[in-house]
Design goal:
rod-shaped; Beta-Lactamase; 11 helices; 3 domains; alpha+beta; 5-stranded mixed sheet; about 475 residues
Length: about 475
C-alpha cells in the first residue's frame, strides 16, 4: 500500500473517530442543556408568581380573585411568534397553586382543582423547604411526553402558606433541540469532510514529494541524467539535499573508477605500438624503416592526446546535470566560424560547401558546448566525405526548436552500425586511412544535445549521410 494512502487512512481514522466522538458528545449535551436552560427560566417564573399570589392566598381571596379567569385566558392565548425560524402559536406553561397541605386551589389547565398534590415532588419538597422540581410523563410509554415541573413557595414571613408550580412540556422544546442538532450535525459533518480533504491534500503533497524523490533516485541508479526535484518543507527539503549529495559522492567515485578502466583499456593499443616501435628503433635498420617507426610513434602519441582530451571534455559534460549559462547564438555565424577553422581540411579534400542556413535563425544554449558539438559534427562529416564531394549545411525551425542538418557525400553507413554511432568508443574505419577514431565525437554531441533538451539522429540519404542535431530556438 502506498505511503500516501497509509498516511491518509491513519489521518482518516483519527479525524473521523475524533470528529464522531466530539460530535456525538455535543449532540448528547444539547437536550439536557436546553432543558437546564428552560428549568432556570421556570424557577424565575415560579418565584415571580409566588410573590404575585402571596397576598391573595394569605387573605383567603385566591379562589374569589380574577386569577383563575386570567390563568384560563392565558392558556387560550395564541402567540404568533417566530423564534429563529420556528413558529410558536400556543402557550405551553401550565400553572397550578396549592395550599399548605398540597391541595390544588387553582389550575390553568382546569384539571386538578381540589386534588391532593402533596405527594408530587415539586409540591412535597417545596413544602419541606427544599427546591421542588420533578419531571413526569403524561404517557408512561412515551419518553417524549415528559413535563418539567418547578415549584416555588408562597411565604408569609417565615411560614410556607402555599406552593405555585410552573410546568413546561419537553415536547415544546423538541423542535429547538432537533433544529440545533440538525445544524450542528451538518456543521460537524462539514468540518469532518473539510478535515479529511485537508488530510487528503496533505497526503497527496507528501506522497507526491516522495514520488519525485523516488523517481529521481531511480533515474540516478539507472545512470540517467536527472534534475533534483524541487521539494519544499523542512525534513523533505533536507532529504532531497542529502540524496543529491549522496548521488554526487557515489556518482563521482563510480565515474572516476569507470573512466580509469576505460582510459586504461583504450591506451593499451597505442602504448603497445609506441613501445614496440621504440624497441625496434634501438636496433640497426634502414633510415626509411626508422622514419616509418618514428611516424608511428608520433601518430599513436597524437591519438593518445586526442583520446585524453576528448575523454576530459566528455567527462565534463556527463557530470553536469544542467546548463551553467545560456545565451543566444546566430546559427549561421556559429557554423561559419567552425567551417573557417576547418578550411585547410575542406580545401585539401576539394569539398564543395553549401551553407543554406538562414541568417535569422538563432539558438539558445551554452556557447562553448554548442561550438564543441558543431566541431565534432563537422569532424565526423569530413572524415567520411569523399574527395571532391558535397558538404551541405541546412537548418529548419520546428515548433520552437531548431534542427541543424549536416550532410556529407560519401558511402552509406551499414545498417548494423546506425543505431550504435552515438555509443562511447564505437567507431567505423575512416575511408581515407582505414583507422578508427576514438569513438567519442558523436557521443559528446549526444550528451550536449541532451543537456539542451534535444537529440541527434544520423541517417543515410541518397549519395551520402546526414546528421540532424535538435536544439532549442531562441
Amino acid at each position: 500500500m502506498p505511503l500516501g494512502v497509509r498516511i491518509f487512512l491513519v489521518y482518516f481514522l483519527f479525524v473521523g473517530l475524533s470528529g464522531w466522538f466530539v460530535l456525538s458528545t455535543v449532540m448528547d449535551e444539547i437536550r439536557p442543556g436546553v432543558r437546564q436552560s428552560t428549568e432556570e427560566t421556570l424557577v424565575d417564573t415560579a418565584n415571580l408568581l409566588a410573590e404575585i399570589l402571596r397576598e391573595d392566598l394569605k387573605s383567603g381571596r385566591l379562589t374569589q380573585s380574577r386569577l383563575s379567569e386570567q390563568l384560563n385566558s392565558y392558556g387560550q392565548r395564541r402567540p404568533q411568534a417566530n423564534i429563529w425560524g420556528l413558529d410558536k402559536s400556543r402557550v405551553d406553561h401550565r400553572i397550578y397553586v396549592t395550599d399548605a397541605k398540597g391541595i390544588v386551589l387553582l389550575d390553568s389547565a382546569g384539571e386538578a382543582v381540589g386534588q391532593d398534590y402533596s405527594r408530587w415532588n415539586d409540591v412535597y419538597l417545596t413544602l419541606k423547604g427544599q427546591y421542588g422540581a420533578r419531571s413526569s410523563r403524561e404517557d408512561p410509554q412515551d419518553p417524549d411526553s415528559s413535563v418539567m415541573y418547578v415549584a416555588a413557595p408562597i411565604m408569609d414571613g417565615e411560614r410556607i402558606i402555599g406552593v405555585v408550580s410552573v410546568a413546561k412540556p419537553n415536547r415544546a422544546l423538541q423542535p429547538y433541540i432537533e433544529r440545533s442538532q440538525t445544524r450542528l450535525g451538518w456543521l460537524g459533518a462539514g468540518l469532518i469532510v473539510l478535515g479529511l480533504l485537508i488530510g487528503g491534500l496533505l497526503s497527496w503533497w507528501l506522497s507526491g514529494a516522495l514520488r519525485r524523490l523516488t523517481r529521481y533516485a531511480q533515474a540516478v541508479s539507472e545512470g540517467q541524467r536527472a534534475e533534483l526535484p524541487s521539494v519544499r518543507g523542512g525534513e523533505l527539503g533536507q532529504l532531497a539535499v542529502a540524496v543529491e549529495r549522496m548521488r554526487t559522492e557515489l556518482e563521482g567515485k563510480a565515474y572516476v573508477e569507470r573512466y580509469v578502466h576505460t582510459l586504461t583499456h583504450e591506451l593499451k593499443s597505442p602504448l603497445a605500438a609506441i613501445r614496440g616501435a621504440a624497441e625496434l628503433l634501438g636496433s640497426d635498420m634502414p633510415s626509411e624503416q626508422r622514419q616509418r617507426f618514428v611516424s608511428n610513434i608520433e601518430q599513436e602519441s597524437a591519438r593518445m592526446q586526442q583520446l585524453i582530451e576528448r575523454l576530459l571534455h566528455l567527462a565534463q559534460v556527463e557530470q553536469r546535470q544542467g546548463l551553467e549559462e545560456q545565451e543566444v547564438l546566430v546559427l549561421r555565424e556559429l557554423l561559419e566560424d567552425q567551417l573557417q577553422a576547418q578550411v585547410a581540411r575542406i580545401e585539401g579534400l576539394g569539398l564543395q560547401v553549401d551553407n543554406r542556413i538562414d541568417g535569422a535563425l538563432r539558438v539558445c544554449g551554452e556557447a562553448f558546448l554548442l561550438r564543441q558539438a558543431v566541431t565534432n559534427l563537422l569532424d565526423n562529416a569530413l572524415d567520411f566525405s569523399v574527395p571532391g564531394g558535397l558538404l551541405r549545411l541546412a537548418a529548419d525551425a520546428v515548433q520552437g526548436r531548431i534542427v541543424l542538418r549536416v550532410f556529407n557525400q560519401g558511402e552509406a553507413i551499414p545498417d548494423y552500425a546506425l543505431g550504435r554511432l552515438t555509443e562511447r568508443f564505437y567507431s567505423l574505419p575512416r575511408p581515407a586511412s582505414g583507422r578508427k577514431s576514438t569513438g567519442l565525437g558523436l557521443n559528446f554531441v549526444q550528451e550536449v544535445a541532451t543537456l539542451h533538451g534535444g537529440s541527434i539522429r544520423v541517417t543515410n540519404l541518397a549519395e551520402g549521410v546526414e546528421a540532424a542535431l535538435d536544439l532549442p530556438a531562441a
